Amino acid sequence: MSDFAAVLWDLDGTIVDTEPLWVAAETELAERHHKIWTIEDALQLVGSDLLDSGEWIRERLGLTMSAVEIVDFLVERVVVGLSAHVPWRPGAVELVRDLAEVGVPQALVTMSYTAIAQPIAERLPFAAVVTGDIVPRGKPHPDPYLMAAEQLGVDPADCLAIEDSPTGAASANAAGCHVLVVPHMVTVPPAPRRTTVPTLEDLTAADFRTLRVNNSR
What we know:
By secondary structure, the protein is α/β, with parallel strands linked by helices. It has helices at about 20-30, 40-45, 50-60, 65-85, 90-100, 115-120, 145-150, 165-175; strands spanning about 5-10, 105-110, 130, 160-165, 180, 195.
């Protein structure tokens, strides 16, 4: 598998299609306060630290709730939605398991809180899990990916991160990782140390031996 020491996975929109659940929760929150929430509003938050998102929502909707209260509301709704059905993204589970079979260390690196991430992580062979409620600074800061690499005992510069958002890709690049971009709901611009594929479907560990990532800085 190429020269990558580990693969670090984003969750929302990359492994599981949680974005519709987040949008529904945000819309419900807005409607409860007789406010209007649009898909354009929701797309502004894809991949972001939850408390940053909570503060943005508070200001956007003019709410008296704190950012923490807003995040708690949203997380509870998403947890309920995932307990009913997990909408896996095409090819993600298969690729995680294929990488595990050939001995590649993997970590889950998400801004979702433990209540959302842990039930997903328990179904897959991750050696480390980093969530938004345990890092000092969330994406786009490098902290989440630096923490994941440290937990795996590898150099982040030797890691491949798999991401679907500009915020997440920026976080991984800032940590020194190469990034495999799999766009979903938002466009991720090209940048050094990034390559883009349309889907993870039918991608295997063997394909990583020929993966070409732009290494220029």
